[in-house]
Amino acid sequence: MLTNLDEYNNPxxxxxxxxxxxxxxxxxxxxxxxxxxxxxxxxxxxGRATIPLAEAGHSLIGVDIHSPMLQEAxxxxxxxxxxxxxxxxxxxxxxxxxKSDFIYIVGNSFHHFLTNDEQHSFLHCVYTHxxxxxxFIVGIRFPSIEELTSTEAEEYWKSYQDSDTGxxxxxxxxxxxxxxxxxxxxxxxxxxxxxxxxxxNEITTKIDLRYTFPQEMEHLLTPSGFMxxxxxxxxxxxxxxxQSTQMIYVCKKQRVHPxx
Length: 260
Fold this sequence. Notes:
alpha/beta, 2 domains, 7 helices, four-stranded antiparallel sheet, Rossmann fold
């Protein structure tokens, strides 16, 4: 039976498909420039955003629930002789015994919290670990009509070349959206072709993503003790519009106890 965990069991494959994305990293580096102390990267994966901040001289803890992803993150950090603490924990039950001035969750990882309870538990954990007036940044997908339209058919997404074998991988996605639960169900099929363009292997994984709308996001963050200071439609700080593909929330911890 396929689960959300399967998508992350091959961290090298994950990096092949995602590591080249750096727009959020550039944004985080600017935000981190005036921060001191430990920075928390939640749902850090293979350290795509963690490692560049560590290279810039910041102290980081990377947290993820997926052991293979953390093992790859540690391997990459050690190759660069970087000191990063990697912690395997469920971010809805976070318990690091530290406080931070800067916490972030990027890579659309907030979508993995599929229920209201999981979203509230995660935000409570962030609030608990954040210093007063500390910064919390969350980046998620904008729930556009195009994104949520049920295709009920396999659609081509992208192709890339394996750096080790030279084989090409074609990636296809079959998705449908459950409007009641606000969850998009995705089946991803990777078709691996050899030098003769013959398909020699197919890998199918499943991933479910909970979409959250702008007004809903505000209603989540504010009662949880966060003051939203900026909302952007992308990592270049464009305004949020109906044509946006992302929602970037920059928040400050308020010195009032959040509604439980």
